[in-house]
């Protein structure tokens, strides 16, 4: 078992539940010691950001998107698709998108992905909305993530930002959401607003034009 170094930790909890827990003055070594594969946590500029357990509706949408992406990427041989506990590192910063697609698998180590993913997807939730659309959004852009999808079920919109287009958001409420970072992959935005979500198999057939 790893020994946690002694440290003076300042804790800030947002005044509602679900929450983001911020641990200040944390070194990279302390982040490694405190974190494990069952804890969704990120590290930015000396702050360890710990996420609360996700809601069922959030995880349902994440699983839906991840399954479709994994089917497509596996079929096309375009790399790997990872879920929300996997980290990518740029400099000393480490981030855990809800979903990421990494084309070059040689950048994968036993602990994390070195460098930004081609595609990062975030499904917004009550506890993460401000963080995701604020400091995390800016950090993703600085890191050079090629394409970012922000899925906002409350507003029923998918915001797509691409590095080559200066990260100017394209807002899609219905119709096809098309990825350039994962060529050929697309979904219908309105699938994500259905309750219950549609059959993954039926959507996969639509994607393939069956």
Describe the structure.
About 3% of the residues have low confidence. The strands form 4 sheets. Strands 5-8-10-11-12-13 form a 6-stranded mixed β-sheet, sandwiched between helices. With 210 residues, it is α+β, with helices and mostly antiparallel strands. A hairpin with a 6-residue loop joins strand 1 and strand 2. The chain is 24% helix and 28% strand. The chain has 4 helices and 15 strands.
Number of helices: 4
Biggest sheet, spatial arrangement of strands? 5-8-10-11-12-13
- The radius of gyration is 17 Å
Low-confidence runs: 4-9
CATH superfamily of the largest domain: tt1808, chain A
Which shape, going by the Cα principal axes? globular
The largest sheet, given as strand count, sense and whether it forms a barrel, is:
6 strands, mixed
Report the order of strands and helices: EEHEEHEEEEEEHEEEEEH
Helix share bin: 10-25%
How many strands appear in the DSSP assignment?
Answer: 15
């Amino acid at each position: 078992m790893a020994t946690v170094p002694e440290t003076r930790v300042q804790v800030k909890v947002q005044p509602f539940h679900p929450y983001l827990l911020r641990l200040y003055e944390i070194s990279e070594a302390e982040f490694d010691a405190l974190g494990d594969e069952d804890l969704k946590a990120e590290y930015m500029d000396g702050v360890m950001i710990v996420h609360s357990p996700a809601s069922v509706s959030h995880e349902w949408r994440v699983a839906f998107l991840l399954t479709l992406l994994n089917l497509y990427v596996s079929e096309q041989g375009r790399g790997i698709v990872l879920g929300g506990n996997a980290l990518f590192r740029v400099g000393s910063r480490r981030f855990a998108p809800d979903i990421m697609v990494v084309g070059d698998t040689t950048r994968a180590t036993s602990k994390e992905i070195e460098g930004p993913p081609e595609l990062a997807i975030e499904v917004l939730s009550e506890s993460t909305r401000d963080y995701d659309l604020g400091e995390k959004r800016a950090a993703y852009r600085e890191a050079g993530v090629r394409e970012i999808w922000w899925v906002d079920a409350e507003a029923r919109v998918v915001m797509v930002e691409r590095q080559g287009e200066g990260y100017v958001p394209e807002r899609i409420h219905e119709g096809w959401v098309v990825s350039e970072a994962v060529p050929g992959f697309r979904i219908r935005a309105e699938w994500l607003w259905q309750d219950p979500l549609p059959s993954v198999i039926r959507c996969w057939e639509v994607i393939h034009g069956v």
